Amino acid sequence: METTPRPALDLTIDCADPPRLVAFWSEALGYVPEPPPAGHATWRAYWSAIGVPDEELPAGAGDVPESIVDPDGRGPRVWFQQVPEAKTVKNRIHLDLRVGGGRSVPLPVRARRVEATVSRLVEAGAAVLRITDEPDAGQYAVLLRDPEGNEFCVV
Q1: S-S: 62 plus which of 33, 44, 85, 138, CB 3.0-4.6 Å?
Q2: Which of 116, 104, 119, 112 is nearest to 140 (CA)?
Q3: pLDDT tens digits for 12-52?
Q4: Rounded CA gap, 114 and 135, in Å?
Q5: Backbone angles phi, psi at 123, to 5 degrees
Q6: How far is it, in rounded angstroms, from Cα 67 to Cα 3?
Q7: DSSP-assigned beta bridge partners for residue 80
């Protein structure tokens, strides 16, 4: 009996400016821009070589990396897909960047780790939306928006 292989996970984020989000999320996640397949100078050259018609590619698509990968190969690939429409509503799914270390780490230490990451990401283009500081519940988290308005949390 044939078994279905476990699917690989890619995360696709619709956006207007893939290079901008490649730079931001590479910084946020410690990822690197995904190089084009061997033998191809750009992703556009690769897509052309495998038969993707030029009319299916927006101007500039694939001229620079539009995806990022975990250099350790553990996390999912993230592709920033250029779309014509702007973001208009709250995300129905978001990323949590877990930098605090979990509940076994004292709350003040977790909060300092979160704040250090938030400061770095604000410098990279994020905006703080809300801080959840609930010491009685053992919680400290910050809700941010990436440069195109996608919400994510740092906990």
Answers
A1: 44
A2: 112
A3: 999 999 999 999 999 999 999 999 999 999 999 999 999 99
A4: 14
A5: -60, -30
A6: 30
A7: 13
